[in-house]
Amino acid sequence: MNGRAQAPIAVVLLSGGLDSMVCAALAREQGFGVLTLTIDYNQRHRVELEAARRIAEELQAVRHLILPLDLTGFGGSALTAAIDVPKGGVEEGIPVTYVPARNTIFLSLALGCAEAAGARDMFIGVNALDYSGYPDCRPAFVEQFERLANLATKAGVEGDAFRIHAPLLHMTKAQIAREAERLGLDAGISWSCYDPAPGALHCGLCDACRLRSKGFEEAGLSDPTRYASR
Amino acid sequence: MNGRAQAPIAVVLLSGGLDSMVCAALAREQGFGVLTLTIDYNQRHRVELEAARRIAEELQAVRHLILPLDLTGFGGSALTAAIDVPKGGVEEGIPVTYVPARNTIFLSLALGCAEAAGARDMFIGVNALDYSGYPDCRPAFVEQFERLANLATKAGVEGDAFRIHAPLLHMTKAQIAREAERLGLDAGISWSCYDPAPGALHCGLCDACRLRSKGFEEAGLSDPTRYASR
Question: Chain A contact for B83, CB < 8 A?
Answer without folding.
Answer: no
